[in-house]
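Input structure tokens:
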């Protein structure tokens, strides 16, 4: 039991890192499965290039779009935006939403970049696509046998009779692996720079950031519990009144505007330190303040976790 609790605590503390690690492993495994079981280069001058590019790029595009779909911030940004956009749209709000979209794109790019990197390290997709490219074939076969260019598309299937065409596969695989390692290095450097800058520009300290995450976990747990209890009582009352043909008791339920306000994307203001939109709503409601953006409200990349805990996961939406 203690070992299970230790594993659970580890998951709760590092669920984001573990999630990205799991996505990376599944993507890499999926690419290996595709390249060994599904992928079969047609060895045709007409089809090699599109076939190789489709296997290299289309799954990456699908994973990129899936990354958007599985991110709760995507649905926080989109849900109801058409209904409220015409009334509350502003230049500052548009800039904040553009920044959030950039952050969503960066998070969604993890899986597709992993796919492309692993595919390039394997080399099969690149070899097939490169042998079907006429300009690349002319460059590779320069100063070689006259039949090299015509035989090159057959090389991935080991059917090329020209020895030079078969030997060029090693060069193409080397190119593919070099590109793969360059891509991996660029992604790691970019992540390091982005993480360092976002942490450096964090408006709160390291320990307060930890407290913030603890608060959000507790807030979402209590919100889910209270919402379940309230929904159950409301449903019971409505069903009871339906069968008894009676008038229901009055239940105080948040209005559409209330739900919209606590469901909007979080913005940080150093003058008014709130840990969530619910926290901001409760305090401003007591002061009869509006929830509209005020001067100084900004989207902070390091605080992106505020929009994605507990009840806000897409699995429960």
């Amino acid at each position: 039991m203690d070992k299970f609790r230790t594993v659970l605590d580890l998951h709760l503390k590092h669920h984001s890192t573990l999630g990205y690690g799991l996505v990376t492993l599944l993507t890499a495994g999926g690419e290996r499965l595709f390249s060994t079981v599904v992928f079969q280069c047609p060895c045709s001058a007409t089809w090699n290039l599109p076939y190789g590019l489709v296997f290299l790029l289309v799954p990456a595009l699908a994973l990129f779009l899936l990354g958007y779909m599985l991110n709760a911030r995507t649905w926080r940004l989109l849900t109801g935006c058409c209904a409220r956009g015409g009334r509350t749209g502003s230049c500052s709000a548009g800039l904040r939403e553009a920044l959030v979209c950039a952050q969503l794109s960066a998070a969604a790019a993890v899986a597709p970049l992993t796919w492309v990197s692993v595919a390039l390290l394997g080399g099969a997709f690149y070899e097939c696509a490169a042998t079907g490219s006429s300009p690349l074939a002319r460059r590779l076969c320069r100063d070689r046998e006259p039949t090299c260019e015509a035989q090159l598309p057959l090389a991935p299937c080991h059917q090329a009779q020209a020895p030079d065409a078969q030997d060029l596969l090693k060069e193409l695989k080397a190119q593919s692996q070099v590109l793969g390692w360059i891509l991996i290095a660029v992604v790691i450097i970019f992540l390091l720079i982005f993480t360092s800058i976002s942490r450096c520009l964090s408006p709160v300290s390291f320990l307060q950031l930890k407290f913030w995450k603890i608060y959000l976990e507790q807030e979402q747990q209590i919100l889910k519990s209270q919402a379940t209890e309230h929904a159950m009582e409301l449903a019971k009352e409505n069903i009871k009144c339906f069968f008894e043909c009676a008038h229901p008791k009055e239940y105080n339920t948040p209005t559409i505007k209330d739900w919209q306000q606590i469901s909007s994307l979080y913005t940080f203001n150093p003058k008014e330190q709130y840990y969530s939109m619910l926290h901001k709503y409760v305090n401003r409601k007591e002061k009869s303040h509006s929830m509209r953006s005020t001067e100084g409200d900004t989207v902070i990349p390091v605080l992106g976790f505020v929009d994605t805990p507990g009840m806000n996961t897409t699995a429960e939406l």
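The mean pLDDT is 81. Residues 206-290+297-303 form one domain.
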